[in-house]
């Protein structure tokens, strides 16, 4: 029996190392193409190309002749792997596939659907058709799903790939999937950019030796395998984090870009998830109304590598809000390349400014925050107050100054995320500790509302909001 399958090769990062300009242009073009196809319901590419393989009994229709390695998923067998188009034919001819044709693990594909691939243009079109009157899917919802060779992802009996737009609000781990996909592409493109920067710097700095047969400079670290490089990044990140845990970090501790990429690999998804939990899943009605504004302005202080801004963008898009301003205020400039890469993946500009959370607003270090354009609706202090406390009380001068001075410019909420809180059963009834306790006491002094942000295992943070009483007095 012939099985007609349509294969769509979705967005994937090339295994080669192109320049970041080319990679960004290619990613943007593909995302735009998917969104345009989805909006127009264009399926004209479905019959553009066919491939007849003598080793297979099937006739695969391909959306574009792309034979590069990419993520594959068989809905019938519920198996995922990474491979070229030839691997599809090999899988079809195998015993597992033929067995699952008789007893499928997952739902049998509908007529016209793709049995392989992560996302197809028709599925994106269907998603947009389900939300008529809304804008096309945001870029974070179109990033490819990740899958490891030989793993069942997702589990048997579920859809082949989670649809992220329209937002599946009843799916508890939907944002976890967003963060997973985003980090996967961020790391692949970011490490490629870092490699290109090394090569270009070496070419610029080193002159070929006279009489040498090989004029190319030797670039340290460029011969290592991706696994070795990631291990090196992880080790450097661990050393950097040990300084941060002891509150003894210095600017030079953040000078190694590999350490920063290792930190992003370890912490990005976790920090983004905590922020999304506070901004969306446990948001107060007032905060939800702010996120739905047509021009939302959000800044993260101590926010490298911008994980909280990914959460803010997704929460804003889910709430129906629009782009106003995104900004990172950091103690060191070395996070800038990673923050810029996050902005490119989001398709939105992220401003990058200097600040020192441990000093008051009047300090020269915080001149950027006194700027006339430094106005925001929501500020996020992400795991920075405890680190800057140096084992003593959390430095709250800057938070106090911003809350008081930015009232007229529209600042309505400050989210503080930090560690050091009680875990386990009864955590909601236990008093706050460390920096969050200090923020709670300050909020009472300022007349601000305080809302605890409960996470999966502990209290993740507190949200300061302008109380109705304080607003009435201000007016």
What does this structure look like?
The protein has 475 residues and is an alpha/beta fold. The protein folds into two domains: 157 residues, no CATH class; 208 residues, Rossmann fold (3-Layer(aba) Sandwich), CATH 3.40.50.150. Helix content is 39%, strand content 13%. The chain contains 14 helices and twelve strands. The strands form three sheets. The chain has a seven-stranded mixed beta sheet with strand order 8-7-6-9-10-12-11, with helices on both faces. Strand 7, helix 10 and strand 8 form a beta-alpha-beta unit. The longest helix is centred in the middle third of the chain and has 32 residues. The protein is globular.
Number of domain modules: 2
Q: What average pLDDT do the residues reach? A: 74
Approximate shape: globular
Strand order of the largest sheet: 8-7-6-9-10-12-11
- Return the CATH class of the largest domain: Alpha Beta
Could you say which structural class the secondary elements and strand pairing correspond to? Answer: alpha/beta
Report low-confidence residues grouped into runs of 5 or more.
1-18, 41-67, 105-133, 156-160, 469-475
Second-tier CATH architecture of the largest domain:
3-Layer(aba) Sandwich
Task: Tell me the distance between the termini.
Answer: 76 Å
Series of secondary-structure elements, N-terminal to C-terminal: EHEEEEHHHHHHHEHEHEEHHEHEEH
What is the β-strand count? 12
**Total DSSP helices:** 14
The percent range for strand residues is 5-15%
Helix content estimate: 25-40%
CATH topology of the largest domain: Rossmann fold
Query: Main sheet, how many strands, which sense, barrel?
Result: 7 strands, mixed
């Amino acid at each position: 029996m012939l099985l007609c399958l349509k294969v769509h090769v979705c967005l994937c990062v090339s295994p080669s190392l192109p320049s970041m300009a080319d990679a960004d242009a290619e990613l943007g073009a593909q995302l735009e193409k998917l969104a345009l196809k989805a909006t127009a319901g264009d399926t004209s590419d479905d019959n553009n190309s066919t491939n007849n393989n003598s080793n297979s009994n099937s006739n695969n229709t391909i959306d574009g002749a792309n034979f590069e390695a990419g993520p594959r998923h068989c809905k019938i067998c519920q198996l995922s792997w990474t491979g070229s188009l030839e691997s599809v034919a090999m899988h079809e001819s195998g015993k597992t596939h033929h067995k699952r044709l008789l007893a499928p693990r997952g739902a049998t594909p509908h007529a016209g659907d793709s049995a392989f691939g992560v996302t197809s243009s028709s599925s994106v079109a269907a998603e947009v058709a389900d939300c008529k009157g809304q804008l096309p899917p945001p870029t974070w919802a179109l990033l490819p799903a990740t899958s490891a060779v030989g793993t069942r992802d997702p589990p048997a009996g579920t859809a082949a790939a989670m649809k992220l737009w329209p937002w599946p609000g009843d799916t508890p781990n939907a944002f976890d999937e967003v963060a997973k996909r985003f980090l996967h592409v961020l790391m692949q493109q970011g490490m490629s950019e870092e490699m290109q920067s090394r090569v270009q710097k070496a070419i610029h700095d080193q002159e070929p030796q006279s009489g040498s047969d090989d004029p190319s400079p030797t670039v340290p670290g460029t011969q290592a395998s991706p696994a070795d490089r990631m291990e090196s990044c992880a080790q450097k990140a661990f050393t950097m984090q040990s300084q941060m845990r002891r509150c003894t970090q210095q600017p030079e501790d953040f000078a190694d870009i590999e350490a920063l990429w290792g930190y992003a690999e370890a912490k990005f998804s976790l920090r983004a998830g905590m922020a999304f939990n506070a901004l969306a899943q446990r948001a107060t009605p007032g905060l939800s109304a702010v996120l739905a504004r047509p021009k939302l302005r959000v800044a993260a202080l101590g926010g490298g590598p911008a994980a909280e801004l990914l959460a803010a963008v997704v929460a804003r898009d889910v709430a129906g809000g629009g782009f106003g301003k995104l900004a990172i205020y950091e103690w060191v400039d070395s996070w800038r390349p990673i923050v810029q890469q996050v902005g490119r993946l989001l398709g939105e500009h992220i401003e990058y400014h200097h600040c020192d959370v441990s000093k008051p607003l009047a300090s020269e270090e915080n001149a950027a925050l006194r700027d006339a354009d430094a106005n925001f609706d929501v500020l996020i202090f992400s795991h920075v107050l405890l680190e800057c406390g140096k084992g003593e009380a959390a430095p709250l001068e800057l938070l106090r100054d911003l809350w008081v001075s930015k009232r007229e410019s529209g600042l309505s909420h400050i989210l503080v995320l930090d560690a050091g809180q009680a875990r386990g059963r009864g955590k909601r009834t236990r008093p706050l500790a460390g920096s969050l306790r200090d923020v709670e006491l300050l909020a009472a002094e300022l007349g601000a509302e305080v809302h605890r942000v409960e996470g999966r295992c502990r209290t993740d943070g507190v949200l300061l909001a302008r109380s109705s009483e304080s607003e009435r007095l201000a007016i």
